[in-house]
Amino acid sequence: MIWFTSDLHLGHESVIKMQDRPFADVREMNNALIHNINECVSGNDTLYILGDISHHISAYETNALIKRIHGRKHLLLGNHDVTGEPEYCQYDESLFESVGYYKKINAYNLNIIMMHFPMLSWPKATAGSVMLHGHIHSGPAYNEADMKAGIRRFDVGVDANNYYPVSIMQVKQWAEKTPVSITSRENLYIPGVWTAVPVTLGKFAAEHPDRKLVVYDSQNENEEVKGFHQDVFLQRKVIDAHSIGDGVWSVTV
Question: Which residues sit opposite 242 in a β-bridge?
Fold first, then answer.
């Protein structure tokens, strides 16, 4: 299984009050966050840590805490993980499978872009890729709001996820509920609204031959259309279109 987390801020006493974390002191916080990870992540699982493992403690102390965390760990460097000029990772890099600032993976039919900092745009954003980040210490409402807005950008930080890591299956389920806005040559798509002259299903399919289409019939209780290549459907206007996976699009006519 693949897991993601970010912004543990181990050793950072002030973050408890700043983020209203439910811990009595930094020792309790450190133990709880590591316990929550290890409760989910096995030794053979992959864990991507998207930055800010610790703050205001030494690299030596942080290394000891990292050794307690299960999984094959990959680190995406956050602003509190680096030191020096030019910057370099302040922890023991041998504790990680990889260390960097940016990473792309493809898993469970999802293109996933990872970085500590949230991005305004990212590769294949309009084709359904998901951007995972930390840094902003959001609450759970942030990911819910992005889902409703059709923005496939997810905060994997502990403050947004009840102080637990996030599994790839959680990300996939969230992404499947998060339609992606598109802009074609003749249409400006705003979530839920088509402006200008809508294209026909036939034209939409011809313009996007690389996409697998799952078509729904708005005139028949939105039932899936198995034989949508018939003229009666190809001549219908596209009402809605959004990505539901890597290269797979849901289209309503």
Answer: 250
